Amino acid sequence: MRFHVLAVPISITRKDFTVCSTTILVLDWCKMMHARGHTIYHYGHEDSEVDCIESIPVVFEKDIQQTYPGRNWKRDGVHGSTEDHVHQAFNIRAIHEIQSRKQSGDFLLCFWGFSHKPVANAHPDLIAVDPTVGIDHPVSLPYSIFASYSVMNRVYGKSNIDPRWYDAVIPHFFDVNQFEFNPTPKDYFLYIGRIIPSKGINIAIDLAKAAGMKIVIAGTGNVRGCKDDVPDHVIEMGSVNVEQRCELMKNAKAFIAPSHYCEPFGMAVVEAMLCGTPVITTDWGGFAETVLHGVTGYRCRTQEQFNWAANNIGSLNRQTCRDWAVNNYSMERIAPMFEEYFDTLSKVSNSGGFYFDNTTRTELDWMVRQYPPSS
Predict the structure, then answer these.
(1) Model confidence pLDDT, tens digit, residues 277-291
(2) What is the C-alpha separation between 35 and 222, in angstroms, rounded?
């Protein structure tokens, strides 16, 4: 299949841009599908480093510096207005560059969602898909992929629309080779992500204290933005790269993610489990689908529950955590889900809609999950 992949306009599709989860998804999606023989055209920043047939620069560092002078993505994260110069220039150039490369029936993947809609409108002969619909994003393209059923139902409800036949839930995906399994952790808890109050930083700090543990906090922002004083048991790391993230995750006794809001997925939780590290989260959003309560972690609703989980997290089997994550969220597992979905869209578009006939089907396993054996 042939894909035109629109990246994040204000980011660089490169492995060191770990502060932007969508950027990592673009990078890994291209790597995953390019390795399976699909034709991938990537449209993004001039300094991108992507596995694809061609990476076409449609935004340049001078555009970003003109719009956001002095921007430091490690300190400030990746942000911007969809109406700014960078976004507008990205879309205008992408529209032009796609014209000379497209074939009728190609797929257009709008990873920045509704902000890429002008590109989709300019190429109605392409099959336009939003592959990473977020909790606050409208359904704006003909087809949508959600990372969890939680975010799908939230978006449908917020948009006041009925479910759409040709959308899908496909979990996020991971290169398991980037995450090393460690059966013997050290004595600290870990939080990695944006350091903001809605991520539950206070809960993470308090539960670590109740368990008598150090907690390492890494990411953009700082603890003082969430708490008046930084307690002695907190170790701040700032932003970390891929290698540092792996080291921190594989050596942690537990990964803490007590988000106040409905996480659409929560990628860091699965990354921790890929290292064998059990997790402690809230009981909503994507966590309800990724965290097997009492098996790969605990989902909690009161501070007392968080404290109990912190004191008992060491009883969970780290190999089971690793197996669950590999079997259900690896690139090898998720790639066939994308292929099934895009094959369906192609047939729906070209072979008669809902009632198209598929005489070659031999199984319907694309949504099957692999659960640990019962103890």
Answers:
(1) 999 999 999 999 999
(2) 38
Helix (H, G, I), strand (E, B) or coil at 299: strand
* Residue listed under structure tokens 């979990």: 171
Nearest-angstrom CA–CA distance, 143 and 331 = 22
For domain 2-169, the CATH architecture is 3-Layer(aba) Sandwich (3.40)
- The β-bridge partners of 217 are 191, 236
Please give the distance of CA 153 from its chain centroid, rounded to a whole number. 18
pLDDT tens digits along 40-82: 999 999 999 999 999 999 999 999 889 988 877 766 666 777 7
pTM of the predicted model as reported, rounded to 2 decimal places: 0.94
Domain 180-327 sits in CATH 3.40.50.2000? yes
Going from N- to C-terminal start, the domains of the chain cover 2-169, 180-327
Rounded CA separation 282/290 (Å): 12
Distance separating the N- and C-terminal Cα atoms of the chain: 42
How far apart (Å, rounded) are the C-alpha atoms in residues 10 and 47?
12
Strand order across the beta sheet in which 234-238 lies: 234-238, 214-218, 188-192, 254-257, 279-282, 297-300
